[in-house]
Specification:
Two copies of one chain form a homodimer. The first copy, chain A, has a seven-stranded mixed β-sheet with strand order 10-9-11-12-14-13-19, with helices on both faces. In chain A, strands 2-3-4-6-5 form a five-stranded parallel β-sheet, with helices on both faces. Chain A has a four-stranded mixed β-sheet with strand order 16-18-17-20, with helices on both faces. Chain A folds into four domains: 265 residues, Rossmann fold (3-Layer(aba) Sandwich); 161 residues, Thiamin diphosphate (ThDP)-binding fold, Pyr/PP domains (Rossmann fold, 3-Layer(aba) Sandwich); 84 residues, 3-Layer(aba) Sandwich (Rossmann fold); 30 residues, no CATH class. By secondary structure, chain A is an alpha/beta fold. In chain A, helix 4 crosses helix 12, helix 6 packs parallel to helix 7 and helix 14 runs parallel beside helix 20. Chain A is globular and about 80 Å long. Chain A is built from 25 helices and 21 strands. At the A-B interface, helix 6, helix 7, helix 8, helix 9 and helix 11 of A face helix 6, helix 7, helix 8, helix 9 and helix 11 of B. Strand 20 of chain A pairs parallel with strand 21 of chain B.
């Protein structure tokens, strides 16, 4: 049935046909995810909802935004992409997330949590401004309901004076089980199934923001969903509605239903051998350190297990907290606990750390507090695509004063870096990929700003590389070049900040090659370029150095930090012409 | 009385003495702010609350966090810093914001909105972990109550299983009047003064999160505040409390009471002449453009007037929205409205744009949507200090693909850039300082990636500078150097991204000097260094280029984007040895 299905055809189908379609979609998702990897249990839970939405609403004229986007597979299957579905997450195949470039049915790209309500409000507001007529719908899980963005969006519903449908897909899970008071509140709403009146009283929170609350319904019951959405469609011209449905994450596949966290995302192991995942090393090492050091605390934002910290949380429940998908709050919690003398570790995926940028600058670094950022899935993360690549962290972190940035060459060095971090009394970021694949033989003391030579070379070329992936490339290249008689030196630049200036100064006559699994702009290579340009004769930069700028008059602060006519004039007068 | 006051002495004072102290503090604040500039009306509103807090609680043993921190002047006056108060916001003087380095009474630095509840929760959690005993108090305005961070913090109160006091200082204002549903809700609570029972029913929202709600009280009534806080102090060992007080912003100074937005911050004009503020130019020009172009919409986050958009909002109320202090939500609203074909402008101070980093990357730039970021107060902003310097924007923006970054040389060029932006169909950031001080004579068409020569020079030196401040330094320096016979060329590098590669290629033999009002790392100078290093013979960088990386296998994506052994080997084999 899927082979030639379109969203329009679905409207003509009978309920038994639609049920059969759901079953077929579910099987297709299972078989494809086990081939390609991808999000499984979130997609299995939303099959009926998605088919009902396509049956009742008129896409792509109506607009549908999926929060995070990891539950859009059924949507893709029934919106003219079934023939491409087997290519999902593959190079040149369709994306595992909504993608405007891919189909008019995908009206807004998502990937990080909590953006869908803001986005659907903007879409609805644009509709109103241009006097268009369509329905605006967001589908969001209860995990995302913890994120502050939801509150900001709710808070502006009346201000925007528009109408949207927000479908709260409540499965009790983020990647980890959902936590927090909003989750408890949703549970109360769900439990009151027999007492509509009592539930309506409880639902006041949403009504404060201008939403009508309607719930709770079984999101896996296709007939109920179709009836409910049909009724709601008529009301949407008058009011904004939160439709609260309960679904079973992993629905229809017993192993998923029983293991929703483990089957949130399925990875297909590559042919390469994995020695150990960095996350396992983090969990094991931090737990061991915390046994001796009572100041150590750990904070996560809804992905404790995938960050390797399940054991730590079990062993030290009073010194660990998963705050839900609240990356900004998690960052400030760490900073403020550090301000009281604790030693906090915030473990997070690189891509989600982007949410914490302002708090890293102000709360952690401008106060120079000893928080350690454990940045997992750094570098290219692969199949999830551009919303999940961890390729920006060095770029947005490198310009922040007071921050030391470490990049381990392998899991063993990562372990030693974690041990080092417990004695390091300042902001520290350690970035690493998911899989540790090989162990380098060298081992030297971890000292900030000190690099390590992995391979000596008698020639002019030196490769400076940071992190396992880049060093793997560097060493492989050097070994290959050796065959053709070119001796290349390879350096493990394990501190991106501070740079090893002593070593760099000895390389002034060398031909330097930098390698990193990060954007060039603002990344490791840029720091090297800055270093040599700053002391070279070709380029001189006047800009602020690596320090926070306190208060004072603008001109005097500019001058104090190097931006003054006298500084520029002095440089030029004394430079070679 | 202030001259020799300490927090400890306050505890021994009588109510009349405390009242007199309040009056004295208020006068001191007024006279000092009119000399030094600073936050006026927010500080005048919180005099009695602050004195009462110091009377009832035991600082610095108890911990007090001020949200944003622009209401801490009375606190500073009565915590051993009265003798330094006249130096506030001056170079080497005390800060206008809480500062740990300054006094043990300042336990946590703030500057941006909404961080205080997270911070006080972290402080309280640290207390519990270390089995210490003190009270943990946050003071937060209703403006900050709009921010999503508050919700994230509330949501985790029960998870953290700790006790804090949150004092909601409700004056109905952010910098602009507070907006949104939470504000309306607080108004309902405030209005029900005679009906305690009804109010308690309304207060359920806070109780859902685990807070006892207690309100509404007159925060400018010293005796009432002392009584209330004394009672609450006893309850804090058992429960977390939100104390809702109403204060008058600008209290005690009629002009402030009547003009709380205009007197939120007082600027002391410098001796330099200001031709026009950039914000005025934004408002005037965008309003003019919007008359012709119905697609133009404007979004702000609680500072419409100071961004120059008061007139736009009056003229186009249906195409403008101030969402309150919700920078992330504002950014997504713009992206989603752009996804529907509108032309949104998000105006914001540089320092507050830091909150939107993730949404700029994903919502705006990875979708390549034509949102224009109007980045005010870029560069050093001066007296507010490190939490408000706008020196990071080029650094965190430059590595984001698809983003064009423009920096006008003066207000006239800014006007032309805004006009240009209305025809530009991609993400655009325009950064500018507050004051426009001079007008350069040259004027040439605004073309992305095309720079402008402001002064020809026959010698070897070329200064590349972006923005009015840097160009002012560059031109002044060049003119001065001319006297000693050194001819320096000066270039207005008005697009930081893309660079003017044609011009740069013609400068390969020149001695280049870059000047910018931004951090070096990741900033304009770094881009220039990258450009020349990349094509020079000294340094070759392997890192990701200026593009988003879609989905696929890790290794194949790395290789596709330039990180492969064959690329490295090929480079080295073909390079000069």
């Amino acid at each position: 049935m899927l082979d030639n299905i379109s969203s329009q055809q679905i409207k003509k189908m009978t309920l038994p046909q639609l049920s059969a379609l759901c079953e077929e979609a579910r099987q297709k998702i299972i078989s494809t995810v086990f081939k390609n990897g991808g999000h499984l249990s979130s997609n299995l839970g939303t099959v009926e909802l998605t088919v009902a939405l396509h049956y009742v609403f008129d896409f792509p004229k109506d607009k549908l935004v999926f929060d995070v986007g990891h539950q859009c597979y059924t949507h893709k299957l029934i919106s003219d992409r079934a023939d491409k579905f087997e290519s999902i997450r593959k190079k040149d195949g369709i994306s595992g997330f909504p993608k405007r470039e891919e189909s008019p049915y995908d009206c807004y790209n998502t990937g990080h949590a909590g953006t869908s309500v803001s986005a659907i409000l903007g879409i609805a507001k644009a509709r109103d401004i241009e006097k268009k007529d369509f329905n605006a719908i967001a589908v969001i899980g209860d995990g995302s309901f913890n994120n502050g963005l939801i509150y900001e969006a709710f808070n502006s519903l009346r201000l925007l004076n528009t109408r949207v449908l927000v479908i709260l897909n409540d499965n009790g899970m983020s990647i980890s089980p959902t936590v927090g008071s909003m989750h408890e509140y949703l549970e109360i709403l769900s439990e009151d199934d027999a007492q509509k009146e009592k539930r309506d009283k409880h639902a006041k929170i949403f009504e404060r923001f201008g939403f009508k609350y309607d719930g709770v319904y079984d999101g896996n019951n296709l007939a109920e969903m179709i009836d409910k959405l049909t009724e709601i469609r008529e009301r949407l011209s008058r009011e904004s509605i939160i439709l609260h449905i309960v679904t079973k994450k992993g629905k229809g596949y017993e192993f998923c239903e029983d293991n929703p966290e483990a089957t949130h995302g399925i990875s297909i192991s590559s042919s390469d051998s994995v020695s150990e995942e960095y996350s396992e090393v983090l969990g094991r090492t931090l737990t061991r350190c915390a046994e001796k050091n009572e100041k150590i605390v750990a904070v996560t934002a809804a992905m404790t297990t995938s960050l390797g910290l399940g054991g730590f949380f079990e062993k030290f429940p009073d010194r660990a907290v998963d705050v839900g998908i609240c990356e900004e709050h998690a960052t400030i919690l760490c900073a403020s606990m550090a301000s009281m003398g604790l030693k906090p570790y915030y473990a997070v995926y690189s891509t989600f750390l982007q949410r914490s940028y302002d708090e890293i600058v102000l709360d952690i670094c401008s106060q120079n507090l000893p928080v350690t950022l454990c940045i997992d899935r750094a570098g290219i993360s692969g199949s999830d695509g551009e919303t999940h690549q961890g390729v920006f962290d060095l770029s947005f972190l490198s310009s922040i004063p007071n921050l030391t940035i470490a990049v381990p060459k392998d899991v063993k060095e990562f372990e030693r870096m974690i041990e080092f971090s417990t004695r390091f009394n300042a902001p520290l970021a350690i970035r690493y990929p998911r899989a540790g694949k090989l162990i380098f033989k060298t081992s030297s003391p971890i000292i900030p700003g000190k690099w390590e030579v992995l391979k000596e070379g008698s020639g002019n070329f030196v490769i400076l590389a940071c992190g396992e992936r880049a060093l793997t490339l560097a060493m492989s290249s050097a070994q290959e070049l050796q065959k053709s008689g070119i001796e290349v030196k390879v350096v493990n630049a394990r501190f991106v900040k501070p740079l090893d200036k002593d070593m760099l100064d000895n390389l002034r006559e060398s031909h330097i090659v930098t390698v990193e699994d990060n954007m060039l702009i603002g990344g490791f290579g840029s720091l090297i370029n800055n270093y040599f340009c700053a002391s070279g004769k070709l380029i001189k930069n006047f800009a602020y150095g690596d320090t926070f700028i306190t208060h004072g008059g603008v001109e005097s602060l500019m001058a104090e930090h190097g931006l003054s006519c006298s500084a520029i004039i002095g440089y030029i007068q004394n430079a070679d012409r």
